[in-house]
Design brief:
Elements: H1 3-28, H2 40-46, E1 62-68, E2 74-76, H3 89-92, H4 94-103, E3 111-113, H5 117-123, E4 126-130, E5 140-147, E6 163-171
Parallel strand pairs: 4-6
Antiparallel strand pairs: 1-2, 1-5, 3-6, 5-6
Helix pairs in contact: 1-2
Length: 172
């Protein structure tokens, strides 16, 4: 097969793939200016959750770990960058470690907070937890903060969104 024939095959495959993706996107999008293609119900059966399978709500609170510095002040736990450009898997294991700690917390361990998270962590009651992660980077005094992401439009405003905080004494 010559280069022209190979190029045409690649172009044909790309065209078919593009049409398939476009058809599925068009069928899954709930509101559109054009009527849905005839196979919309088929696409809904094949992909019932639409794009929700691939994405999550960006406003959902994500747990953030805090630790105390030498002066006893609460700060966001520092990340360590190992390997080229931080590609070491241990760096990416932090979120799993935070999730393992968060799962150990019950209702009374959480405190509602309408101030800066560090101020609430300083007065929150302590709960004991065990760090069962394979790579343990969070030990001793650890705070977990659940707070909605500040909308980008408010980034320059002195706004503190309500949060929930938990103060842990983590055994490693």
């Amino acid at each position: 097969m010559d280069d022209i024939g190979l190029g045409r095959r690649i172009a044909a495959i790309a065209l078919v793939a593009g049409l398939l993706v476009g058809y599925i996107v068009r069928a899954v999008v709930p509101v559109a200016a054009m009527p849905a293609p005839p196979g919309r119900s088929v696409a809904r059966v094949l992909i019932p959750e639409g794009w929700a399978f691939f994405t999550r709500d960006p406003r959902l609170p994500s747990p953030v770990a805090y630790t105390t510095d030498r002066d006893g002040r609460w700060r966001v736990a520092p990340g360590r960058s190992r390997g080229p450009a931080g590609l070491d898997k241990r760096d990416r294991a932090r979120s799993a470690e935070i999730s393992l700690l968060t799962r150990q917390l019950d209702g009374p361990a959480w405190t509602r907070c309408d101030r800066e998270a560090a101020a609430c962590l300083a007065t929150a009651r302590e709960t004991e937890a065990a760090n069962t992660a394979t790579v343990r980077t969070l030990c001793g005094n650890v705070g977990i903060v659940l707070q909605e992401v500040l909308p980008w439009a408010w980034k320059d405003l002195p706004t503190v969104l309500p949060s929930r905080v938990a103060r842990l004494t983590v055994a490693c």
